[in-house]
Model the fold of this input.
Amino acid sequence: MSIQIIMLYVLILLVIIYLLIVIPGKKKNRKMRELHEAIKVGDEIVTMGGIIATVKNRENDILTVEIDSENNVCMKILVYSVSVIR
Done:
């Protein structure tokens, strides 16, 4: 095989990797960034660890969330640990 055919195969492989891995990863990151920016006080969230809580305060990237309203149990978490807004 000539070097030109090998280079063509390598180029095709790189394009396939870009289309199958890089582009979907960028879409997922953009979607998560939009979710994290949309979190506001009063939202019910689910963390990546499975904790269901209500947002009581937001200071930049730190959320104060209430886990148990009867006993007033609160904790601080990073906004990046939120996986779902319910």
